[in-house]
Amino acid sequence: MDAQGRGRADDIDPADQWVLNPNTGEYELRLSPSAPQSAVPRPRRAAPATAGAKVTAGASARSASAGTDTREIPDTLPGPRRRRGTPEEDPLPGRRGGRGRTKAKPKKSTGKRILVWTGGTLAFLLVGVTAGGYLYLQHLNGNIDKIPDDGASTGGFSKDRAINLLVIGTDKRTGAGNGSYGDKDSVGHADTTILLHVSKDRSNATAMSIPRDMIVDVPDCLTTQEDGSKKNIRGTQNVRFNTSLGQYGRTPSCTMRTVEELTGIKSDHFMVADFNAVKTLSTAIGGVEVCLAKPIKDSKSKLDLSEGKHTIQGEQALAFLRTRYSVGLGSDLSRIELQQQFLSSMIRQMKSEDTLTDPTKVVNLAEAATSALSVDSTITDIQKLASLGQEVGKVKTKNITFTTVPVVDNTDGATVLPMPQKAEQLFSTIRNDISLTEVKKQKKAKEAAKLKGKRADASEVRVSVYNGGAEAGSAQATLSWLQNDVGVTKSSQLGNADKTLSKTTLAYDPGQADQARKLADLMGLSASALKPGKGNSETNAQGLPSMVLTLGKDFQGAGVPLDATSAADLDVEKNTADKEKCAS
């Protein structure tokens, strides 16, 4: 049975399928009088069964074979009935009300609905399901494929801190019909990779695409082989990012280590899917709407669409995501733009009430998503995935930002390199849990007010630079950047500070305020980093008063802004998921 039909009981309201078995004293999910089901403990009142808790007899058998605890029950079960004396505020699991009552419209409370937050290449990865039956949860658990994380992850996400998920789309041609796409023997490289960062306060999220043809260093990685043995695979330098998976037997944990090496960000989890994931998920929700500014006819991906809006699913959705030669510059970077457009559209659809309150769509998505998932070994339980999905689902669509690692062309014309400074600025923004959207406008306005006033010309700024806790060489690198890149020629580097600071500071006399504001603009210093006060400056080698810049532990590199309020203005390509964009 396919992903759409699996677990369905047509023409039967699942709310009427929970019945009391007088022989066991427990409630059971009953699909038909002739299909005995395993006993399921009655759900607590705080988590009533939803209309999505349906499962077939075949699914029961699958759960049983996966180790689900089942009880033997009679072949004949009593018909649906209400327990005598049950008060109105304590209905049977999944019941909407007693006989003769008018059906109420579904409430929008997230505590009483199934919540699935998905989106294209991200969709098959992030699933939140609140199902009313232990048996059904076990069935979904049986769908999920797990891969050892080999110690590369943090060990698991937490509700009280930011979340980092590494989403990997592999080009392995597994599954029916996928061998015809060429390179049918591919070992499965990291073809599409997105680092999803969800802020600590869940107000925003950043989805950063990592180009597959970007040159990186792949570190050594310990991997678990299929026979359970451990193997350390030696790293390689100056190679394509996509070789971090598949090549030399590398597993997704190697990709996770490569991303950490590149960005300084350690992921909580990784999730992997192949071509079939796109096809099954786009079909499960009835298609995804995309917009084209011009017709696309790509002989390689087999995509043939006219100008305008189209709803695509299955093979056509996969072709859309694989297209690159007929859009933009015909590069992988152009394909990334298509992927981000597809994901944004799917997110909007998935977070709409039309999907969240449709039991059939939710069940189809739960089945398709868990079947398509390969996840790291620290999150192989559906309830953990549900909790993760609910955390991600708290972010408003307008505050989900898609961006791509800034790159420059390599000399070979076929690969790209991380753009100096700008790439690190983006990595720093994510590491420090800074939003790329305007979700903190009041704070930004307050900070900007503190920095109002006249600015000196860069050539007039006099500053002495000290290292007070940054990496070795940071003061010299900053001096070089100030003098050669931004025109602060009256600067000097005087070694290490007398003490270590956690935060970078700029001390100056009140009469140097215009110089301080200018340097704050250039370096992305927040108002809190500025320390005005009489006697705060020093005399430089020319005998003139000079401000004192002390680089603290928070310093991320020359030219990397330290001001959290300026991140929304970071000069990188970015689009939010609430906005429709037509591919060109």
List the helices and strands and how they pair.
Layout: E1 18-21, E2 26-29, H1 57-65, H2 120-123, H3 134-143, E3 145-147, E4 163-170, E5 190-198, E6 205-210, E7 215-218, E8 221-224, E9 230-233, E10 236-240, H4 252-263, E11 269-273, H5 275-284, E12 288-292, E13 296-298, E14 303-305, E15 308-312, H6 314-322, H7 332-350, H8 353-356, H9 359-372, E16 374-376, H10 382-392, E17 400-404, E18 407-409, E19 416-418, H11 422-431, H12 441-450, E20 462-467, H13 474-484, E21 490-496, E22 505-508, H14 513-523, E23 530-532, E24 538-539, E25 545-551, E26 574-576
Parallel strand pairs: 3-16, 4-11, 6-17, 20-21, 20-25, 22-23
Antiparallel strand pairs: 1-2, 4-5, 5-6, 7-10, 8-9, 11-16, 12-15, 13-14, 17-26, 18-19, 22-25, 24-25
Helix pairs in contact: 1-3, 5-6, 5-9
The percent range for strand residues is 15-25%
DSSP summary: helix tally: 14
- Strand order, largest beta sheet: 3-16-11-4-5-6-17-26
How many strands, which pairing sense, and closed or not: the largest β-sheet? 8 strands, mixed
User: How many strands appear in the DSSP assignment?
Assistant: 26
Would you give an account of this structure?
The protein is of the alpha/beta class. It contains 14 helices and 26 strands. The two termini are 38 Å apart. The N terminus is likely disordered.
